[in-house]
Amino acid sequence: MKPITTKVIVPAVAAAAVAGAAFAQVPPMPPGNPPMPPIANSLTTIDGVVREIFGNKFIVEAAAGGRQLIETGPRGRDLVRVAVGDRVRVEGQARDGFVHADAVTLANGQRLTLEGPGRGPGPGRGPGPLEGPDAAFNQNTVLEAVKNAGYRDARIQDVKKRHAEVVATGTDGRQWELHVEFDGNIRKTESLSVLSEPEIKTLIERAGYTYAGSMRPEKKHMVVLANNSRGERVEIDVHRDGSIKKEKRVF
Questions:
Q1: Which pLDDT score, from 0 to 100, does residue 78 have?
Q2: What are the residue ranges in the chain where pLDDT is below 50?
Q3: What is the C-alpha end-to-end distance of the chain, expressed in Å?
Q4: How far is Cα 147 from Cα 24, in angstroms, rounded to an integer?
Q5: What is the per-residue pLDDT for 97?
Q6: Residue ranges covered by each domain of the chain
Q7: Of 13, 62, 74, 194, which is most buried by a Cβ count within 10 Å?
Q8: What's the angle, vertex CA 144, arms to CA 74 and CA 101, rounded to 5?
C-alpha cells in the first residue's frame, strides 16, 4: 500500500487557518433587528458599518440598506472612537435630518452612553424621572403642555439643549412660538403672526388666490394651500408682515 501524501492537505489546513484568523479580526455585527427608516423626533436603532467620519459625526451604512448621518454631541469626539469599517449599533433620536445618538455600541460589545437631555441619563444621576432643565426630551410631554395651555395645531420646530421650540395656533387664531422646557414648563411665548386666519384668507384672495382649505405654521410664516389665478394648486408663504414671498406648485 502506498503511503498517504500530505502535500495537498497541509496547504489546505494552512489556508483555512489564515482565513479563520482574518475572520476573527472582523467583529460580528451587534445583534438586533434591522433598522426602520427614521421618523422625525422618534427613537430609532441602527446597526451598520461606519463609512465616513466628520469630527463628532459619522455616516453609518445600515445592515438593511441605506446610509444615515449620526451626531454624537459635544462628548462624542472624545468618547466615541470609531474608524471607517467599524461595525456599530446606534440608539438615538431622529430629527433635523440625522440621528442624535443616545448610545453607541462598538463591535467589541462596549456600549457608550452619551450625556445630556435626550442623550440618556448620564453618569451620577439617580433613578426616577428627571425634572426641570435636566429632564430628557420627550415629544409627548412637550406637546401635551402646549395643548393644556390652550394652543392647537402644535408642532415641534426645533430642539435645543434645554428646551424645544414649538409653533402653535393660539385661541386668537394667531401663530405663536413657545419655548417649552423638557419637563413641560412654558418659559417663553412669542407671536409669529400679525394676521389671524380670516385675515390671511382675505389677504390671499386680494392677491388673486383662492383658499384651498388648509394652512400650517412655519417658524416665521404660514404655508397656505391655495389655487392661483391659472387654477393651479400651489402652496404660498404668507409672512407676518402680510407679504407673499413664495409660490410652489403642488402636484
A1: 72
A2: 4-37, 39, 116-129
A3: 84
A4: 55
A5: 75
A6: 42-113, 134-191, 197-249
A7: 62
A8: 20
What are the distances in angstroms from CA 207 to CA 81, 202, 211, 228, 244?
A: 56, 9, 11, 9, 9
Give the list of residues 6+ apart from residue 86 with CB closer than 8 angstroms, or none: 49, 50, 106, 107
Q: Could you give the C-alpha distances from 203 to 121, 147, 156, 231, 234, in angstroms and in order? A: 49, 28, 27, 18, 16
Query: Tell me, what amino acid is at 46?
Result: I
Cβ contact 59:65 at 8 Å: no
CATH of 42-113, one of 1.10.3720.10, 2.80.10.50, 3.40.50.2300, 2.40.50.140: 2.40.50.140
Quickly list DSSP for 136-198: PP-HHHHHHHHHHTT-EEEEEEEE-SSEEEEEEE-TTS-EEEEEEETTS-EEEEEE--SS-HH
For residue 133, what are the contacts with CB-CB under 8 A and spacing of at least 6? 117, 162, 181, 182
Containing H/E element for 16? helix 9-24
The fold adopted by the segment(s) 134-191 is Nuclear Transport Factor 2; Chain: A, (3.10.450)
What size, in residues, is the chain? Answer: 251
Q: CA nearest 163: which of 140, 144, 146, 179? A: 179
> Tens of pLDDT along 85-139?
999 999 888 877 788 888 888 888 888 887 544 444 333 333 344 555 556 778 8
Q: How many helical (H) and strand (E) elements, i.e. helices and strands, does the chain have?
A: 4, 14
What kind and span of H or E run contains 29?
A: none
